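Example 5.3 — Nop domain-containing protein
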Amino acid sequence: MSRFKLKFSSDKVDMMIIHAVSLLDDLDKELNNYIMRCKEWYGWHFPELAKIVPDNEQYIKTILAIGVKENANETDLSEFLDEKKEKLVKEIAEVSMGTEITEEDMLNICQLCRNVLDLYEYRTQLFEYIKNRMMAIAPNLAILVGELVGARLISKAGSLINLAKHPASTVQILGAEKALFRALKTKHDTPKYGLIYHAQLVGLSNQKIKGKMSRALAAKAALSCRVDALGESNSNELGLDHKAKLEAKLKFLEEGGLRKINKQEKKSKEMKSYENKNKNKNFEFKAASDFPVKRDFEETEEQETEKTPQKSKKQKKNKKEKKDDSD
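Solution (predicted structure tokens):
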């Protein structure tokens, strides 16, 4: 029975997402390194091309299409470049300040470019795989935060059940642990967001509202995680409902938040509420003679001071009479 539980445990399904996301991050790092190396290598031959074509994928495709810069006028680049960029590439290739390279150098550069394109294709396949897995395992979280951000939250927590156990405040700061402990040590302000900053709703909001939106999004994400991890149904109705509410809140906050009320309006509202409360109450008014008369505090003090010395004189007389009798 224990073997059966280990084979079909729900944590293993989460582990597929965790490994896929970590592989995606590794691929991004490798792609950046390869593209940087390719630009530096080909930059000796045609240095102006990197400024004309800033997109990495288009840059690599142009290298594979052109090859040596002398062939730029003969090649057709309309498949992946605009007309303006194509004209600029052909014009500047004739007046380029780059050095000449051999065919063997060009073959190695092209081989590197092909490897980079293969990695790009594999990255797109892996991203689609993560999307499908997230919609199957945590549909509410994926709709609310996004597939990639949701997968990174699960990988940071360890599993979907561990993420469901975290409160909303922890989900909000998840991924910014270093900044949190640094702020606690130096007694500065703690961070307002971690991985949840990359969500679409937080990204669309203004800089002033980002903290409020991240807090609200973290609260809804914590609820959706618990439904995905512990709920029986695999519907995404809760995520859609929460997303609609958060979008409405974002519009409300961007418009200026709460409506400013004048002092006169506030007073009139308070008076109306007071009148409504006392409408149904019937008061029986008494005559003035029925109420007890209030005495001033000063009068009572004067009366007490007048009484105290009289008592002391009587006591003195009694003492003198007693002394005379004894004598």
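Remark. Confidence is low (pLDDT under 50) at residues 4-11, 285-289.
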